[in-house]
Amino acid sequence: MNLLFFGDIFGKPGREGLKRALPALLEKYKPELVVVNAENAAHGKGLTPKIAQELFEMGAHVLTLGNHSFDKKDVLPIMNDPRLLRPANYPSRVPGKGSGIYTGKSGKKIAVLQLMGRVYMPLTDCPFTIGTHEVSRLRQETPIILVDMHAEITAEKSAMGWHLDGLVTMVVGTHTHVQTADERILPGGTAYLTDVGCCGPYNSVIGGEIKSSVERFLTGLHQRLQVGTGDARVCGCVVSVNEETGKALSIERIMEIVPLPTNLGEEK
Ligand SMILES: [Fe+2]
Ligand SMILES: [Fe+2]
């Protein structure tokens, strides 16, 4: 079976890019489950119920979040939706859940777990300790486990890949918005990719409009986030899985340019 995962959806160009690219990718890979990181889906910061619904209608089965999980307070009423996951190592009193077990098209159980790194990231509990605990719990239900490791630095993501090698199907990174080219199957059978990259405007600073993003670095002053415009780049990966063992057979990166008009508009 195939599992399809897409990196951080950034604003309307990211959503529109995914919407246009997804039908052909679904036809090509016929995935059992489609998981999408949606932490930047609402104008680059956070998620709203309306946009979550838009992503589900496109074909996403599960949405993961990250450090921008709660940027839009509108998301709070839907944090109990089992299809929506925030990092599992947020303190337990934070709304929502960090993992779930879903049923793929063929009826197989597939677990999804999100963890968040701690280097240059918000304060959270230890992702390695929580990850170990969560994985042993999920493995009682299914050996097919997708892990979204939302982190800033490569070493922390790599360490998580090795830490969970042989215990999960895949450890793939999100958050940096730039796809890395280090996809591999680790010796224990876990597919690994440091960052799958983002689905968002191609001519941008990790999704943000170029002029205001550069100005922030020229002045050091906060600039209101503006979403870039124009063509989208849609980044993700597909992992082929031995459904009996849960081990990965292959991992392939996806990176597609989707032509878009510059006047898509964006809700504030
Ligand atoms: Fe992000
Ligand atoms: Fe992030």
Topology:
Elements: E1 2-6, H1 11-29, E2 33-37, H2 49-58, E3 62-64, E4 84-85, E5 99-103, E6 109-116, H3 127-139, E7 145-150, H4 154-163, E8 170-174, E9 184-185, E10 191-193, E11 200-201, H5 210-219, E12 232-241, E13 248-258
Parallel strand pairs: 1-2, 2-3, 3-4, 6-7, 7-8, 8-10
Antiparallel strand pairs: 1-12, 5-6, 9-10, 11-12, 12-13
The structure holds fe (ii) ion (FE2) (2 copies).
One fe (ii) ion is lined by residues 8, 39-40, 66, 175, 177.
What does this structure look like?
- The protein is an alpha/beta fold.
- The protein has a single domain, classed as Purple Acid Phosphatase, chain A, domain 2 (4-Layer Sandwich).
- It is built from 5 helices and 13 strands.
- The chain has helices at residues 11-29, 49-58, 127-139, 154-163, 210-219, and strands at 2-6, 33-37, 62-64, 84-85, 99-103, 109-116, 145-150, 170-174, 184-185, 191-193, 200-201, 232-241, 248-258.
- Strands 1, 2, 3, 4, 11, 12 and 13 form a 7-stranded mixed sheet that branches. It has a 6-stranded mixed sheet with strand order 5-6-7-8-10-9, covered by helices on one side.
- Helix 1 links the parallel strand 1 (2-6) and strand 2.
- The protein is globular and about 50 Å long.
- It starts with a strand and ends in a 10-residue tail after the last strand.
- One fe (ii) ion binds next to loops.
